[in-house]
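Is this the right way to post structure tokens for a design question? Let me know if I should format differently. Anyway, here goes:
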């Protein structure tokens, strides 16, 4: 029975995970105050809002299977609709079809930016398939040059992240090899596919539109978790979760680096980290922003729950959608204010020196998930401690001795440079 349940969970993870800067440019500055402000939401299930019903406004079964919003599982509570813009009352969801255009679809890959997406359904006795329009076609509804922002999450399905998770559950000993093969495939062609998708969006939206690429959150409680189904319980160890969560961080780092590359080539494109908003709220934590494994068919699953689980599993819940909106809104607000920069800020370091000790304090950096304090010794910096707080007390200093400290922030999968504001020399008392 436990073996059967393990197989069930693997299926759950595979299906549910159909997820299922150059000169700064501000899109806001390109128009006069009387012009329409527009955001377009592209991407996969994390942008569509999979797992947060309702999806669309159809009510009967026959209406739903013909409704693109229902087939794509575009949630009425998706984070794109919670964004705001100067000059637009309320949220974007209040102005769909005028200020907000919603094209994201659960399960989408980069190819579905330009290609139709065939969706299969088996819902309350109705079975069949229907083609969703290429997401790029949404711009046929918008006057050229009117789009201010395009938001999206894309790439998770392309790298087969579900397969990484399934491998972690079925045979953790093969996980390292699987992850290595995924990154080889990413370098071989997936990276180029994602970059081409960015270019295609730019060509359709216009260079005045700022493209905001949102990251993916780490999914599981880093301490590990247990899934229960009746009398059967399956425990996923912390060491296995770490490998899966690390793979998510690497994907974010790769996407962030690609966005940086595109911006240096002249694209109006930006990366939105989400880790600060989701940290400590992974699935199976006390206050999760991500659904755990949901057993049984839910009201608006487009297919019967194969193996007994819902496609809502392992997707952001309502709190998760709000967290996404908060992270992306930060980028929009900076662009609106003309304050976005090509590189992340660096911490500014200050110190208070007492007898035999120093208290280091530094400014927080947007998007930083951790900080590292370093001591300059023997011609190079060596790490003293890595932490999430913005202060550190260091004892055991020798009076009259000079100490040179620095601090750096971990942003978008990489450490900030050690620059003057982040360096401080003190003399111990």
């Amino acid at each position: 029975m436990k073996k059967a349940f393990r197989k069930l969970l693997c299926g759950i993870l595979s299906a549910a995970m159909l997820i299922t800067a150059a000169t700064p440019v501000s899109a806001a500055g390109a128009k006069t105050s009387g012009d329409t402000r527009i955001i377009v939401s592209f991407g996969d299930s994390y942008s569509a809002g999979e797992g947060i019903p309702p999806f669309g406004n159809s009510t009967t079964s026959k209406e739903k299977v013909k409704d693109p919003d229902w087939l794509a599982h575009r949630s009425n509570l998706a984070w794109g609709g919670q964004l705001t813009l100067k000059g637009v009352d309320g949220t974007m969801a209040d102005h769909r079809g005028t200020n907000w255009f919603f094209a994201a679809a659960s399960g989408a890959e980069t190819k579905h930016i330009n290609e139709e997406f065939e969706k299969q359904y088996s819902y309350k006795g109705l079975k069949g398939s229907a083609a969703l329009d290429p997401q790029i076609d949404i711009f046929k509804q918008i006057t050229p040059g009117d789009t201010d922002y395009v938001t999206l999450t894309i790439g998770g399905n392309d790298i087969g992240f579900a397969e990484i998770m399934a491998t972690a559950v079925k045979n953790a000993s093969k996980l390292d090899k699987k992850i290595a093969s995924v990154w080889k495939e990413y370098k071989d062609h997936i990276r180029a596919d994602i970059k081409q998708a960015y270019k295609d969006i730019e060509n359709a939206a216009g260079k005045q539109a700022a493209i905001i690429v949102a990251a993916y959150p780490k999914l599981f409680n880093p301490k590990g978790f247990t899934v229960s189904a009746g009398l059967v319980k399956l425990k996923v160890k912390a060491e296995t979760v770490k490998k899966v969560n690390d793979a998510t961080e690497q994907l974010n780092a790769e996407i962030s680096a690609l966005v940086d590359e595109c911006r240096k080539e002249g694209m109006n494109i930006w990366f939105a980290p989400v880790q600060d908003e989701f940290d400590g709220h992974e699935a199976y934590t006390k206050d999760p922003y991500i659904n755990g494994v949901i057993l049984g068919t839910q009201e608006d699953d487009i297919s019967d729950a194969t193996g007994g689980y819902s496609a809502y599993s392992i997707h952001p819940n309502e709190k998760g959608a709000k967290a996404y909106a908060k992270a992306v809104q930060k980028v929009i607000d900076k662009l609106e204010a003309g304050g976005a920069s090509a590189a992340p800020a660096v911490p500014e370091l200050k110190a208070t020196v007492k007898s035999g000790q120093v208290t280091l304090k530094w400014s927080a950096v947007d998007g930083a998930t951790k900080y590292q304090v370093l001591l300059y010794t023997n011609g190079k910096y060596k790490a003293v401690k890595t932490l999430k707080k913005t202060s550190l007390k260091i004892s055991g200093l020798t009076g009259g001795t000079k100490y040179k400290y620095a601090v750096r922030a971990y942003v978008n999968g990489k450490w900030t440079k050690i620059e003057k504001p982040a360096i401080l020399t003190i003399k111990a008392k």
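Format looks fine. Someone answered above. Worth noting: Residues 12-34 have pLDDT under 50 and may be disordered. The longest strand covers residues 368-377.
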